[in-house]
Amino acid sequence: MQMRKAVVAGQFYPGQNEACVDQINECLDARALSESLPDTISAGIVPHAGWTFSGSLAALVFSAIRQQHEKVHTFVMFGAVHSFLGAVPAVCNRGVWQTPLGEIYVDEELADAVLATDSAVADPHAHLSEHSIEVQVPFIQYLFPGAKILPVLVPPVEQATELGAKVGEILRGLESKRIVCLGSTDLTHYGPRYGFVPHGTGQTALQWAQNVNDKEFIDLALELKPVELLASAARNGNACGPGAAAATVAAAKELGCRRGLLLAQTSSSEVMREKMGTTSTDSVGYAALVF
User: Are 41 and 252 in contact (CB under 8 A)?
Assistant: First the structure.
């Protein structure tokens, strides 16, 4: 059986089982759900930085799903693309993924159904070095034992919206199973380190990145506008995984969601100030949304 081994364990999150569980619990305890949740959660958007920076926001999304749905059969994981050069979405359609918490199976039956729509291609090798999905998997293993995953890398192309809609259509026909879609993306990468300083440097510029640039992307996601979301990311550089987010939003819309819910928003500069007492001229935005 084909196995995808963890590649960022020990970097983005702990590499040992006990330490991994301890940090998951820290992330779960760091933030409380303060919003009234929809009765059904069909999708979510999570950040994918190291857990120290964005784990508490990812944990909020998983907590919300767990609160509304104790049992989830499969998570469709729409991942951001950092090194994969393909022009169409790539599905890991076979095998198992390994993390410090053990193995989790790919939902091969659902993979075949998605591939039959011709909106993605089978390419497990595309996933071998990508971290945007991997950092979510231990949360699933811990909170939803027995759940499967369907990993899909989604480039920022028009086909992302088509893929999401097709997945939503498939899931509407699987009423006997609880399947949740997750899109993995961070938001604006601002500062000299990222070569993106349209408003210069300093605290005012970082506030613009979070309160204006990130907010535009978040609002389009909440309003279920995947096409406009892709265009905003291309124009404003306000997400590193806009294809993943667009697919998620399109799926949620197909599944009957009318508006998303923002659970929390922050940035790496805020986390550094709160946790480490330091500042930086660079910052990455994070948001936790459910649909």
Answer: no
Rounded distance between C-alpha atoms, residue 57 and residue 55, angstroms:
5
Residue-level length of the chain: 291
Distances (CA, A) of 128 to 6, 93, 125, 199: 8, 13, 5, 36
pLDDT tens digits, one per residue of 4-33: 999 999 999 999 999 999 999 999 999 999
| Residue-range domains of the chain with CATH | 3-185+240-264 (3.40.830.10)
Please enumerate in sequence order all residues whose Cβ is within 8 A of that of 265, keeping only pairs 6 or more positions apart, or say none. 57, 210, 214, 218, 285, 286, 287, 288
DSSP assignment letter at 239: B
What pTM, to 2 d.p., does this model score?
0.97
Backbone angles phi and psi of 215, in degrees to 5: -60, -35
CA 211 to chain centre: 20
